[in-house]
Amino acid sequence: MSEQEKNSPILDKRSSRRTFIKNSGLTVGGLVLGGAIGSLVAGKTETTTHTATSGSTHTAIDYSDTRQFFVRQKDFDALSTAAEIIYPEDDHGPGAITLGAPYFIDKQLASPWGINTDDYRKGPFQPGEVPLDKADIMLQGVRKLNEVAEKNFDGTVFKDLTEEQQIAILTSFQAGEVELDLVNSAAFFALLRTLTLQGCFSDPLYGGNKNMAGWKMKEFPGAQMSYTSYLDEEEFVLIEPISLGGHKHS
Amino acid sequence: MVIKLPKVDVVTTGMGWTGGIVAAELTKAGYHVVGLERGVERTIEDYLHGHDELKYNIHKELMQKLTKDTITFRNALNDTAKPVRDEGAFVVGTGTGGGGAHWGGQTYRYFPYDFQIRSKTIEKYGEDKIPADVTIQDWGITYDEIEPYYSKFEQMAGISGEPDPLAGHRSIDYPTPPLKKLPQMKMFHEAAEKLGYHPFVVPTANVSEAYTNPDGETLNACQYCAFCGNYGCEYGAKADPIVTVIPTAKKTGNFELRTNSIVTRVLYDGTKATGVLYKDTRTGQEFEQPADLVVLTSYIFNNVRLLLLSGIGKPYNPKTGEGIIGKNYTDHHTITGAIAYFEEKKFNSYIGTGSLGSAFNDFNADNFDHTNLDFIHGGQIEVHLMGNEPITNNPAPFGTPTWGKEFKKNSLHYFYRNLTVVSQRAILPHKDHYLDLDPTYTDDYGDPLIRVTFDYTEMDHKRNEFLVEKINEVVKEMGADIIDTIPMAEHFGGRFTFQHDGGGVIMGDSPENSAVNNYMQMWDVDNLFVCGASAFPHFGPTNPTPTVGALAYRAAEGMIEYLKNGGGQLISKK
What we know:
Low-confidence stretches of chain A: 1-53
Number of helices of chain B: 12
Largest interface: A-B, 67 and 59 residues
Structural class of chain A: mainly alpha
Radius of gyration of chain B: 23 Å
Shape of chain B: globular
Number of helices of chain A: 10
Helix content of chain A: 40-55%
Mean pLDDT of chain A: 83
Distance between the termini of chain A: 27 Å
Structural class of chain B: alpha/beta
Helix content of chain B: 10-25%
Largest sheet of chain A: 2 strands, antiparallel
Number of strands of chain B: 22
Oligomer: heterodimer
C-alpha cells in the first residue's frame, strides 16, 4: 500500500482488490470470488434520486415508505414519536424517524417474524410467559401510549405531548407500571427499544438506516468484504460504509 | 406405512462436525455411510450476500427453527420447566455443517487436569475438596491418549495458532501460523506479561493463510471481515464440515447424504441397534434405515432425547443418583468479565474474526494452587476482537440510561473506545443437574421435548468472583479509564445462545459411571456410538469443538476396528 493510500481514510477499491487477491491465495471457488471481488469493485454508494418533471424539481416517491402493518395513522404516529424519543436526532446526527426506523418496524411486524413463525408457540403458557405474537404486542403497546396520553393530558395524543411528558410515559412503560392485556408493559418497551435500534443500524435493505446514515453516524463500515489492509493500523481508520445493495453489479 | 430400505454399513444422525468426521473416516476405510440430516445441504455459495447482522446474528438464519424443536428449562427439581420459545434464546445449527457452520472457531484443547479431574484433585487436595453433590469423574481417557486425536482434528481443520505455554504437550505444531496481533491484543499481552502471566494468541479455525489439509481439502485465508460466528464463511476460510470432511466423504463414492431427514427413533432389539426410523420433513413419509452401526451425531440434546425416546440405557434419576442417560448435564453459557473504556484510544473494532484474540491460562485448570480457595478448576482470561456490530453493540458505562439523548451520546462516543475482557470457565456437574423428557411439552410429531434442569452452584459463584478480580487487574494495567464489571446473575437464566452444552451420555472407564467408553461406544449396545459433547463428564473451561472433534476421530477409529472384527466391545469393562 502506498503512503498516499495509507493516509486515505476511504477504502481504495482497486488497491483492496489487489491486496485481497494476494492475501487470500485463492485458487478454487472462482465463482464465489467473482461475487466477492465484484462487490468490492462495484461498491457504489446509494444516492437519492431527484427527477425533473415539467420544469419543477421534486424528490421521487420512496415507495418503501408505505405501511404494510399499521393501518391507523394515529398508531403509527405514536410508534414514530416513541422511537424518536428512544433514539433522538441531536448534534451527532439523525434520530430514529430520519433513519426510517418506524417503517423498518412496520415491515418487520408485517413479516413472518412479526407473528413469531420461528418461535415455539405450543401451550400451555405459564405465568410470566407471553402468549401474544410480536405484532399483537406492538399494536397494543402503541395504542396504550395514546390511551395513557389522552387520559392524563386532556385528550392530547402521544405525539402532541411535550418531550418531558413523552419521556415520563415511556419511563412508566419501561418500569412495567402500565397495565396491558397478557403482556407486561416492560416487555413491550423492551421490544420497542430493540426494534428501534435495529431500524437505525440494520442493513438499509430492510427499510431503516436510510442511506446508511446510521452507519455513517456510528462510523461503521457496513458489509465490507475484507479488512486485511488495516490490521496494523494503530490509529482509527474511517472507512466509507457499503451496504449489501451496494454489492450488486451494475 | 414405513418404507424399509436396504441395509447399509453405517448410518449417522446429523451432518455437523461429528457426522462429518465419522462419514469421512469410515468412507475412506471403504464402508458405505448414509448421513441423515434434518436440514438442507449448503455450500459456500449459500454464504454470499451474508454480511447481514439482522438476518444472521439476530434472527439466527443458520439455526434450527424452534417451531420444530426446542427444549424446556427449569432451575431446580421442584420447578415447572418452561419451553425456550424465543429464536434468540436457543442456538442449535441445522443443515450440513451444523454447529460447524456458525461457530466462531476458537480451538483450545482441554488440560491434562480435565481428563483426570477427580483423581488429580484428590491426589493433590484430598477427597474433601470435592463437595458430595459435585459429580465429577475422570473421563476414561488421559490427555496423552487423546493428544494424537486433537492433532488430527487440528490438521484437518487447518488451525492457526501458537502454543499456550501452560497447556498440555503438543506432538505437532499448529498447521498454520496464528492470526495477526492487533493493537488491542498487543495491549492485552503487555499488561498480562507485566503481571507475570503467559498470554498467547487464540488458536482458531479462521485460517491465517491458504492451507490444504491431509485429505486434500483447501481452506482459504481469513479476511478479518468480522461476519464470522453465527455466519457461514463465503471464502471457505473458516473450517466447516462443508469445506472439509463432507467433501472428503463425498470423494470416496461411499457416502450418501439424505437431507430433510429427521431421525425419530433408534431401532433397538434389546441387544443391538438395528437401524433408525426417520421422517422426510417435507412429506412426513417414514423410513426405516437398517445399519450394522448406528452413530448418533446430533447436538447433545437430540442425542440424549433419541436414547430416551428409544428406551436405550437407564434414565438418570437425580433423587436416587441411579441411572446414567441424562446425567451430568452442564451448561457453558456463562461468561462474565469487565468492560473497559478508554478515553484516549479509538480502536478499529469493526475488524475481527469469530476467534481473533488473546488469552492466558494462569488461573485455569489446576495451573494455580487451590489449597486456600473454596472452589476447584478455573477459567481462561481472554480478549476477543469479533467485530463490533452496530445493532448489538451500544456500549455505554453503567449508569447511562438505556435509551434517549444520553444513551445515544455515550454509545456513539464509546463505540470504538472499549474492550471487553472475559473469562470462560469450567462448569462442573451437580447431582441435580440433568436432562430428561418433559412431561408436558412436545414437538410437532408429538414427541416430548428435552427438559433441562440446571443452575449455578456455590462454586460457580466463587470461581467467578476470583476470576473477575484477576480480569479487573488486567484491564487496569491496560490503562482503562472506566471499568465496569459484568455481574453474574444469581441463577442461570436459560439463554442457550452459542451451543455450549455438555453431558447426558457421558464417557468413563466403567458402565457403573458412564454410558459410553472412550470410543464413544455404548457399554450396553455394542453397535451404537454416541458422538459429541454429550460425552463430556464435565464442561472443560473453553469451547467444546476441538475436544468433540478429537473424540469423534477416536470414535471413528473404534468403529473401523469394530466393523473389521465383526463386533464386540472395544474396551473391557472395569
